């Protein structure tokens, strides 16, 4: 293992341990057990339904991105690779699931790695845009100060959102920079560089196609549906913990805050980082620490366990191994 990879793993473990320590330090475990024991299973089932709806929207969105290059691509053929990638990301470091999705399923998806990588890029931008919009809406709804709560001013959130929209709608503005970087790679490694250029061209064409108003609007609508479904999961878990959770609407603040916390270096599955900031969001609106901790643990389990199990079973059934990227460009 390279020194940089070891450093990243170590840093992630340090952050995760720190946030787990902060959680353990402030929670009363007897109260936590009592809250969990009174969980309403019917609302947990409703949360699982919301989870399934959210992932169905994500699969449909990804399929829409790939249809230009693979017109006959089915929903079923997209579902397995997407769930598998989430499963691998949940248990292995370095976004290994994204690497797998880009290189291991090309035959099934009937497309190339360059196009899949472009779709992953757009997917991440759309998700980040939705989370930023939901954070802004939640902070406004609860009359919270942007800078005090989020650590950044409202102008930072607005500017970042506008930049994402600019990239999504006008990717042609950034193509000169990408071309320059590719030319540098060709000079350093001609064989790899020229093959990479082919994939870059495919990826850029995909970005330009997705940037069309009608196509991007559909992707944004699928993104809204996916994140609203995930928001319903957060809210259903809050309802499952009544009356311990006093303000169930706090779930709509916990979603963007907990999700953005996953950008902090951590372990696969975001153990500690996601939980601590989800708890912070819930307690900031008057919920008790014990109830907020129980809430964070349940939400985390519902977000982690279903895709890890279903994606893992898909990988086992199809005997797919993590690909080595270098094989894609071997001379």
UniProtKB/TrEMBL annotation:
Q: Which organism is it from?
A: Methyloprofundus sedimenti
What PANTHER family does its record include?
UPF0104 MEMBRANE PROTEIN MJ1595 (PTHR39087:SF2)
Q: Which residues cross the membrane?
A: 7-23, 43-60, 125-144, 150-170, 219-245, 294-317
Would the keyword Cytoplasm turn up in this protein's UniProt record? no
Which UniProt key words apply to this protein?
A: Cell membrane, Membrane, Transmembrane, Transmembrane helix
Its recorded name reads Lysylphosphatidylglycerol synthetase
Database matches in InterPro entries: L-PG_synthase/AglD
- State the membrane topology: Multi-pass membrane protein
**Record's GO cellular component terms:** plasma membrane
Q: Where is the protein found, in the record's own terms?
A: Cell membrane
Q: What is its main location?
A: membrane
